[in-house]
Every structure is written in C-alpha cells, then in structure tokens.
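Whether sequence alone determines local backbone shape is best considered at the level of individual chains. When preparing material for the folding task, we compiled for one chain both its residues and its backbone structure tokens. No coordinates are needed to read the tokens, only the vocabulary itself. For completeness, the protein is quoted in full, as a sequence line and a line of structure tokens:
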Amino acid sequence: MQETMQERSSEKEGLFADLIVVGSGPAGLAAFAAASDQGLQNILCLEREKLPGGRLRRKDEEEAGREIFHRAIGSAACLKHFLSLLENYELSVSCGCELRETKFSGADREHLFSLLVRQDEGKEKHFFCRALILATGEAFSPEGPTLLPFPGESPEASSRPLPAGLFLAGEFRRKCPLPDDAARDGAEAGRRASDYLLSDQPKSR
C-alpha cells in the first residue's frame, strides 16, 4: 500500500519516499513524470541547483523537442512543457539539495537506500527510499558511469553490480546528444522503477 511522505525515525530523522529521483534535467523530469503516470504517489525529486531544468536551462539546444514533439521547439519550450506536466501531476522539485552520500542496505526492504543531502541553508538531512533513480547528467564517460561507487564508498566498490532498486538515467547512464534522448531514457527508468516497486520484484537495470 502506498504511504504519504512522512518523517521516519532511524539513526537520524529523515524523509521517507518510495522513489527518489536525483536530478531534474530532461532525464530526471521525465523519470519523475513517468513514475507518477504509472501510479506511484510517494515520489521525491532532488535538484542541486536553485531551479529545475538541468541542460534545458543551461543552454539553448535548438533541436530539442524534435523527437518528443515531432518538431524542434528549443530547450526553453521543452522545459516549460515538463514543468507544466509536473504541475498537472501536482509534483514539485526540491531544489538546492546537494547529494553528499548514498548508502545501500539490502537488509531492510523498506529503506534500501539512505541519502545524505546538504540543503541551501547548509543543513544536512537524511532521506530514505525503496528505489532510487540517478539522473544527474554528470557521470557519462566512454568507460561508463564515473560517479559509481556512490560518494562515501571506497573505490573498490565500483566493481560491484548495481543493487536492486537502483536505476540510472540520461547521461548518468549513456551519452545523450539531444535532451530528447535523455528524456526518453529517463521515462524508461521511471517506468522500470515503478514496475519494480509496484510488483515488489527486482527488475533488470
């Protein structure tokens, strides 16, 4: 049964969500919307910057939207569409939240991931979730994701398989020449994360 987001007591106080999306560029926003469209209600999206949008806000890519909307509308129009979509779903992005540490605990199905986040005012807060989508747009390299292992883990951890419940999206997973590519990748990650949570069975990542 779905729960509303609420304060949970663990070693430290923190917020619990079924799914947390880290990053609000085209991949993160698409993942956020797709998960909600699949029926998930207890979702949170964290963004390091003061405003959502990622590459859609940082640079104007004239070809943005060609594959999603079948015509090039540019980055600003794509961002406006995504934000309107989130508004329709009554979803909001928590901005000014920098991910400092992520830990995985396979022993507790209800709190598989714990995230330490530093907020704009300098305070640190813990978040807990059953599934996690990383869509920060920063990890791509020809050799694969470079921000794995998570902050706080040892370099040796990078050879481990991804844990169940973890999904990578957009340029955290692969090179995305257009925002449309990142958005499609994010939407697929959102659907897979939803399937994972709603079926309560691990899915291939």
In short: The first strand starts at residue 6 and ends at 9. The radius of gyration is 16 Å. The chain has a mean pLDDT of 81.
